[in-house]
Amino acid sequence: MAKKKGLSQVVSTVVLIALTVALVAGTLTIVRNYVTKGLGDASACNDILEKISLNEEYTCFDPTTNSTLISISRNEFALDSLLVSVSYEESGTTFYLKNEAETIENLRDYSSGSTLVSLPKNESGKTYCLAQIYSAPSIIQIAPKRGLKQCNVVDLIQDIPICDPTLKCNLLAES
User: Fold this and answer.
1) pTM of structure
2) Among 52, 175, 27, which Cα is nearest to 120's?
3) First to last CA, the chain
4) Within 10 A of 117 (CB to CB), how many other CB atoms are there?
5) Residue 100: left if φ>0, alpha if ψ -120 to 50, beta else—which one?
6) How far apart are CA 84 and CA 101, in angstroms?
7) What is d(CA 61, CA 37) in angstroms, rounded to the nearest whole number?
8) Is the dihedral of CA 160, 109, 76, 92 positive or negative?
9) Amino acid 35: pLDDT
């Protein structure tokens, strides 16, 4: 009879241990990459809270010019752009304020009247006039964007008040 050769129990155990170690290492690599990516996305937005906000004193609706004043304050932190959402009963408008000045339809800088608008610089604030609005907004929200990560809403104002008569977007009458 021919001698049958097979794996000894020691070799079988070593092979099983090696397969188990390889499987665990592969699983840990996949999980680590997933968690690292998730934490990276979360950390892009976790330090923003209270570093950019709507200034309630100067955010209001001006019925004499049918425009909305939106005042934004910014502390010291890196920011690529800011999504501003203005909602009305049946519609709304959104736009991004960026570090570089650009023209956004119906939006002007309150203090200069310029059609070129940008984010407030660090440790400062800006007020903007949003023209051609025919009713007071129901809510104004802001949400920062850092890199490719759009963060959640960090501040909002509901029930927008009527502006003090001294605050007018009269700079917006005609372009």
Assistant:
1) 0.72
2) 52
3) 104
4) 20
5) beta
6) 15
7) 42
8) positive
9) 75
Q: How far apart are CA 125 and CA 54, in angstroms?
A: 9
Task: Please give the residue that has the higher pLDDT: either 154 or 1.
Answer: 154
pLDDT of residue 3: 64
According to the model, what pLDDT value does residue 82 have? 93
* pLDDT for position 156: 93
d(CA 58, CA 153): 19
Q: What is the 3-state secondary structure (H, E, C) of the chain?
A: CCCCCCCCHHHHHHHHHHHHHHHHHHHHHHHHHHHHHHHHHHHCCCCCCCCEEECCCCCEEECCCCEEEEEEEECCCCCCEEEEEEECCCCEEEEEEECCCEECCCEEECCCCCCEECCCCCCEEEEEEECCCCCCCCEEEEEEEECCEECCCCEEEECCCECCCCCCCHHHCCC
172 pLDDT band (50/70/90 cuts)? very low
Look at residue 10 in the predicted model and tell me its pLDDT: 81
Residue boundaries of the structural domains of the chain: 10-43, 52-170
Using the predicted structure, report yes or no on whether residue 138 has a pLDDT greater than 60.
Answer: yes
| Secondary-structure class of domain 52-170 per CATH | mainly beta
**pLDDT higher than 50, residue 89:** yes
Calpha distance 80→74 (Å, rounded): 13
- Integer Cα distance of 147 and 164 in angstroms: 38
